TrEMBL record:
<dbReference type="InterPro" id="IPR011335">
    <property type="entry name" value="Restrct_endonuc-II-like"/>
</dbReference>
<dbReference type="InterPro" id="IPR038726">
    <property type="entry name" value="PDDEXK_AddAB-type"/>
</dbReference>
<dbReference type="Pfam" id="PF12705">
    <property type="entry name" value="PDDEXK_1"/>
</dbReference>
<dbReference type="InterPro" id="IPR027417">
    <property type="entry name" value="P-loop_NTPase"/>
</dbReference>
<protein>
    <submittedName>
        <fullName>Putative DNA repair protein</fullName>
    </submittedName>
</protein>
<feature type="domain" description="PD-(D/E)XK endonuclease-like">
    <location>
        <begin position="660"/>
        <end position="939"/>
    </location>
</feature>
<dbReference type="InterPro" id="IPR011604">
    <property type="entry name" value="PDDEXK-like_dom_sf"/>
</dbReference>
Amino acid sequence: MKKFLELVAEDLLERKNHSLHELLIIVPGKRSRTFLKHILSQLIEKPRFAPSIFTINEFVENESKLKLIETIPAIALLYQTYSNIITKEETIDNFWYFGEMLLADFDDIDKYLVDAGHLFKYVHDLKEIEQLFDDLEGDQIELIKQFWQNIYKGTGAKSQEKVRGQFLEFWKHLYKIYEAYKKELSSAGMGYEGMLYRETAIKADKNQINFDKKKPVFIGFNALSGAEKQIFNAAKAAGGLFYWDYDQWYLDKKHHEAGYFMRQNLRQYPSTLGDKHNFDNLRNKQKIECIGFPGELEMAQKTAEIITSKAKSQDDDPLKNGIILGNESLLTPLLQTLPDDTGKINVTMGLPLQNTSLLGLVKILMQVKQQKIKNKGNTLYKSAWVIEVLQQDIINTPNLKETLDTLINEKRLFCEVDLLQADPIGSILFPVKDINLIEYLKSILKAIVEYNDEEKNEKDYFNTGAAIKIYSAINQLTQQIENYKLDLPEKLMVRLIDRILSSINLTLEGEPLKGIQIMGLIEARTLDFENLIINAVNEGFLPSSSVAPSFIPYNLRKAYGLLTFENQDAVFAYYFYRAIQRAQNLTLIYNSNEADNDYGEKSRFLQQIAFEFPNTITENKYQHVVTPINENPIVIEKDQTVQPLLNQYLNGKRKIYPIQLNTYLNCPLKFYLQYIAKIKEPEQLDSGIDQRIFGQIFHDTMELLYKPLSGTKKPISKDMLLPLLNDETILKQINHIMAQQFGNIELQKKSNGMISLIEQVALKYIKRVIENDIKNEGFSLYGLEEEYEIKHQINQDQTITIAGKIDRLQASGNQIFVIDYKTGKVPTQKPRFEDLFAHDLPKRPEAAFQAYLYTTIIENYEFAQNKELTPSLLYIQENRPIHPIIFSGRKQETYADLKNDFKAQLSNILTELFDNTTPFKQTEDSDMCTNCYFKSICHR
């Protein structure tokens, strides 16, 4: 089957074999030009002068006297015009998104040759509509009437009325802004794209385009704007040729959206090929394969598998094998799954820069720069930001690695810049002096390129290419800012650079006319592949669900012939059906995972094909096989590798602590991963502070305050406690502890409110404990934050050491309270003694277990002999005294009543732990896995 461009090339040669240079060929895009030139060169036997071939945008730019203005200066100048007309103060930062939308609307108005004065007319009274718009047709007037009726007769909340009022006030000024803006641009010899199109259309209407005295040829167009129609009219008058690419199947169906624009085009500009070729391929298709896969990786793998099998026998024809990506983010997983021996590949779209680690680093650094803190000559950065930068794989110098470890280990909230200056790259990433954003980024990119070059880092070659590309883009932005003397705030610059860089693609080296062609749907215009795969054929991608925002309401867009969402769907439908109409081997792949929020259901195009060609399409749907977790739990046997590691706890080599036994009871597998395999959770530092660090500050401060009163066993009186209740005394100790945690605490306190918040909360809770102690004076302190231990016999030859650091041992008379501080809230229900040693139990009473185990540990110490021991909790958030543990469903049983039962169950658990026939199993309660770091290993 001959391809569309082959048919066009043959017809052109038949008409102008020896005078191709007399043709002026205009195509939709650069890709069409590349392949048309290639096909012509193959068909021409002897050297000829080539025809002139332009894209439609290039042709318009050549015809217009205006020079195309870049987007950023265009919006900056639009802001100036807007500010001169609208008296309300608006910063350029707040205006920018609004300006982008307004510029897009102006562009549409000019490309579709809409009378802006007419469109932006302000209707004071509904009765005016007939007179104001008497030159329009009835259905247009009806649409306009509907719009203004909605404006004036709409009812709603006050907020809606306010928005309606703001819109009307803005609408009054739109035409003034439009006219003034265009006048300003024209006087400078500049114009946005729509202005260039309108100017060229006006020339065409006045018969002032001579097409360089050549025969105009238009190939492969579909939806034409008003300006393009004027150009086509001029070409038709000049005897131009029109080559349309379509299929009779959707063209004959009057209501089929794919043929919506083509039916108009063929009526106005008849096909040069006429009836010479019967474009009726869809009806004659033998086989279409439709496959559903439950995820992006699966789609990419299947695409690679199919195309690789086809490519092994490919010749040099670049239109042999093609892949169209409905979702262009699938490019990276596709390239990763293609085998090394796939052969030549040409990726026309390039790899999005946003897929590189370097762009991620640049985005972080732009935020970091804005977070720099100056305080009395000192420069600080939030440690969380610094850590995020230093953890990037591009930043891997030894000095910075050491700095990273310091910040994590010392848990500083802020990092003083001096800590980063020893390393050359560190001093560039985190400068002491203020530097503008552009120069800051350029210095970083230059340093990365030089570092990779010096280290001969071949694996970072890709990042070097990305750095050069980003540097070039920033340079262009700098040039625009300088040329137009723009003054843009840094906050806006960050947004602009982010947007610019996210839209840049890295060119992947390949020969454009050899191998597998990978592209987007729009790039495939005019191209036909023998073997074609289209993936992500889902609603939201094919057709796209995104609609450009606009100030012009739907009814007015429709009335004046501007593009609406229905037109957009028709355009996508044409692109899709045009792409598949000549493919001999066609595979359509969609994401069948209904839980994937990024994808809608399978595309309506697939459903249309299945309905129209039921005997042609074969459909397969693959699903993940999900095995219930209880059927296949993860089990670690205590084999010759694991048992020696576990035995390190025996005979005093390592101690086991209550927190570890709690972990074992909750999930034996987690105990193995964390304490036997020693897989560590990655250290992180939030910009705020977590409960664990706050608890540490509270514990350490209490120890400092009460240490002078501890260990004497003498009763503590009110007079001894009152001096501790002084705010200044408490804050001094809190700041001492916080300085150990976070560094220069006074400097950091002034820079961040979180430090002061921690300080005030800790002060509040500590005072609450002291006040309760004053009410209950007369107790003595046996110990604070001291570690105790006990040896437990596992068997005749082996013992295990159980140790615990007890927050507070407090005695009153013959009673010793074994106290564990708790920063959380008091549980609403009492714990059950039977639950202390339960495996897989949601909300197991871990705190009660820990307090009971502490009590068991100290029982044999001399100071505890003949004493009544009471496991207790002290909840510092609650203004209440010590909370002795009382179990639900039992009488007031003391530790003495329950200790034998507790010790027996403890012995059973320890025996189980060291029994080599009892493996480490995964918990059966998946709720316990919700916040567990190891769930990525367990696939929970």
